[in-house]
Description:
alpha/beta
Amino acid sequence: xxxxxxxxxxxxxxxxFLGTPESIAELGLLPEKDVHLAPYLGKKKQxxxxxxxxxxxxxxxxxxxxxxxxxxxxxxxxxxxxLVEAAGGVVTSPEGRLLVFFRHGRWDMPKGKIDRGEPxxxxxxxxxxxxxxxxxLQLGPLVGYTWHIxxxxxxRFLKRTWWYRMNTxxxxxxxxxxxxIQEIRWVDPVTWLAEASNTYPNIREIIAAALG
Length: 212
């Protein structure tokens, strides 16, 4: 199996790509006011400075770092964070409608941290049930992973979320209001992807991946 040549992480609405010069070139990016391209010089200090800049620069749409060894670049990037594992569900009804909910000013999907020793599949079912009140959930295959970074105080976190397909015949929902969930909807996924702008890029990507 060949080594991975490009990684993608989200920082809110900013996409961060880490890869080889060739894999980054495949993206067709050009330096612009909202696009930052830079060679990785092999020092974590450069990554930390970039992260500090991201904290202050809301205008950046894309950041790309490239080096000859993408796996080493990823290892150095990951070492700047505390890793958090999470799991969630891309939940559909028998009619093919998709569950989304509104929380913290954005449309999102159910997910949460994996407990110590808990399999990701079990965590995904638990979190979906807790956040939506859904029962009779049927677990499907893994859709994929999303990565995003966030900061709490002086500590930075890198979260990997395992996303699973799920379906349920019982579409009655109860929002977990103590987790900030204000509204739950069942939507047509294709129409929703085309029209919904107030959501996270990684959520859009995992829905698109689930749709195939």
